[in-house]
Amino acid sequence: MESLYNYLLANYKENEPILSASLSISGISPTNMRQQLKKLTDSGKLKRFDSGVYYLPKKSIFKSGSPLAPEKVLECKYLREKDIRCGYLSGLMFFNQLGLTTQVPMQYEVVTNKATNEYRETSLAKSRVIVRRPKVPVTECNYKALQFLDMMKDVDIYSEITGIELQKRLYRYMDDSNLSITSLEPFFSYYPDRLYKNLVETRVIYNGILAQ
């Protein structure tokens, strides 16, 4: 048990998700790994976030320690693979992050190369997670473009902001993210016709082409 604990201390930071499925240590079988993880959890050296997800607890003023943020687990499970970008947040969560809706989503939506189906529903602790397969493989270079276009496809449905104010926010986000119509255009064909309709109605299609 101590050898596993020392390995975790050497390779993981406090409050960093530890996925049991990704642990592979010479001399420790999968069965023995599960047993040792349980013992470490029972002793308080590890905390269990969800099935197969653990973390080294960060000390805090609370007896139970500082809790692990679900967003960290989502990033570890779906958005990155060994520090390589492979997915992104989508749906209402992204609308909320952009300030386009005041709705606080009761679920997470992720688009990830790790998805084996077009659509799958699962759970993370007490939260519902919708996992989608990307239209094209997600990379560090294209994920912001795909994330933005996913949002634009549904902007007429979920955005609580319209008109000039919506246009300004979308333009600002594009500028901050170094997105241009030229960089987005290669992905248009993967989306339904309503994407183009929304790009025109919000005047995003004219960003950088015509005066605002």
3D architecture notes:
By secondary structure, the protein is an alpha+beta fold. The protein has nine helices and nine strands. A hairpin with a 2-residue loop joins β8 (119-124) and β9 (127-132).
Break the fold down into its secondary structure elements and pairings.
Blueprint: H1 2-11, E1 18-19, H2 30-43, E2 47-50, E3 53-55, H3 70-79, E4 80-81, E5 84-85, E6 87-90, H4 92-97, E7 107-112, E8 119-124, E9 127-132, H5 143-153, H6 155-158, H7 163-176, H8 181-184, H9 193-201
Parallel strand pairs: 7-9
Antiparallel strand pairs: 1-3, 2-3, 4-5, 6-7, 8-9
Shape from CA axes? elongated
Average residue-wise pLDDT? 92
What is the H-and-E element order? HEHEEHEEEHEEEHHHHH
CA-CA gap between termini: 63 Å
Highlighted features:
212 residues; alpha+beta; 9 helices; 39% helix
Q: What's the short story on this structure?
A:
This protein is α+β, with helices and mostly antiparallel strands and 212 residues long. The protein is built from nine helices and nine strands.
